[in-house]
């Protein structure tokens, strides 16, 4: 006897929206909660807070379960990059995984820096799974005045 599966267009739309939201890092889908991998293991991005004071911009990235050796911060052409990898614990004969809800794999976050950031004075600190970056503001460059002679 053949099994009959009912088509549910609302369920398909919900699945499509979950995949879209997961791609953007907005929510977790049911498949992800059950440990299925819809995309690759590298489609996650750590949550980031960006704050501004009169002296600097402060960026904090949540990287639970990671160490400072797992993370690389670079600045190139006015773009700040935070990249790294959170490795997944492999299942063994004596340890079976029943549920995997955390993201694993590689990540890359990029931020275009404002013109008033002194790229040479960026400071990084890593404590309790939080990467804290301090981007000191530079003095605004004085506009140059060029006198043009009209003939």
Description:
This protein is α+β, with helices and mostly antiparallel strands and 151 residues long. The protein has 2 domains: 31 residues, no CATH class; 86 residues, Immunoglobulin-like (Sandwich), CATH 2.60.40.790. It is 13% helix and 30% strand. Strands 1-2-7-6 form a 4-stranded antiparallel beta sheet, with no helix packed on it. About 11% of the residues have low confidence.
Could you list some keywords that capture this structure?
2 helices; single chain; 13% helix; four-stranded antiparallel sheet; three-stranded antiparallel sheet; alpha+beta; Immunoglobulin-like; 151 residues
Percent strand equals: 25-35%
Number of helices: 2
Order of helices and strands: HHEEEEEEE
Low-confidence stretches: 27-42
What coarse outline follows from CA principal-axis ratios?
elongated
The CATH class of the largest domain is identified as Mainly Beta
Q: For the residues shown, what is the average pLDDT? A: 79
Please estimate the helix content. Answer: 10-25%
Total strand count, please? 7
Q: Roughly how many Å is the radius of gyration? A: 23 Å
Class based on secondary structure composition and strand pairing: alpha+beta
What is the CATH topology descriptor of the largest domain?
Answer: Immunoglobulin-like
Q: Largest sheet, order of strands side by side?
A: 1-2-7-6
């Amino acid at each position: 006897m053949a099994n009959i599966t009912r088509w549910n267009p609302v369920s398909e739309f919900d699945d499509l929206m979950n995949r879209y939201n997961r791609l953007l890092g907005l929510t977790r889908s049911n498949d992800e909660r059950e440990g299925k991998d819809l995309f690759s293991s590298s489609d996650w991005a750590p949550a980031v807070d960006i704050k501004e004071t009169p002296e600097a911009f402060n960026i904090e990235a949540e990287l639970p379960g990671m160490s400072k050796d797992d993370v690389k911060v670079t600045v190139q052409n006015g773009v700040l990059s935070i990249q790294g990898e959170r490795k997944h614990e492999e299942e063994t004969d004596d340890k079976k995984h029943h549920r995997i809800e955390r993201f694993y794999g590689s990540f890359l976050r990029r931020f275009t820096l404002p013109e008033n950031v002194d790229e040479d004075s960026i400071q990084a600190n890593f404590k309790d799974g939080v990467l804290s970056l301090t981007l000191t503001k530079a003095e605004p460059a004085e506009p140059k005045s060029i006198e043009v002679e009209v003939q």
